[in-house]
């Protein structure tokens, strides 16, 4: 009889340990998910904040020149506009850096490395505005190298435009 109580106690302790372990595994997995979410949000803030640091060096004239080209040509660049964009090495480098920034951000969003909602809240207007301004340059690059460059930037921008984001 005493052996039955000991066996029953062993089973109860084992069962209790299993329940405790299951609860710990559940809590640990929940904490890992929350840490991953926090890391994505932190990475998003860091990358978006780097925009100001990186592009403070690029003068406003870069965007102003692009806007003038876009508005004067209804987003269809002529050959002379193409030369203006690509002959000046500094200008071309700044354009490439700007497009690369948005493409890398978009790749991060598409692969869930960056948090899309946070990015939208921080950069929506700037992102869409720059996409519209940079589209002619992106199209020129696509024709030059016959590769669909900036496809992630385009996909994210079009998705956001189609969602009719509140500003």
Q: Helix coverage percent of residues? A: over 70%
Instruction: Tell how many strands the DSSP assignment holds.
Output: 0
Number of domains: 1
Spans of at least 5 consecutive residues whose pLDDT stays below 50 are none
What would you call the shape?
A: rod-shaped
What radius of gyration results from the CA coordinates?
A: 26 Å
- What is the CA–CA distance across the termini? 75 Å
Determine the structural class based on helices, strands and strand pairing: mainly alpha
Question: Which percent range describes the beta-strand content?
Answer: under 5%
Oligomer status: single chain
Rounded average pLDDT: 83
Distinct helical segment count: 6
Give, in order, the helices and strands: HHHHHH
Mind describing the biggest β-sheet? Answer: none
Give structural notes.
The chain is mainly α and 167 residues long. It has one domain (40-162). The chain contains six helices and no strands. Helix 2 crosses helix 5. The longest helix is centred in the N-terminal third of the chain and has 54 residues, at 2-55. The radius of gyration is 26 Å and the shape is rod-shaped. The model has no long low-confidence stretch (mean pLDDT 83).
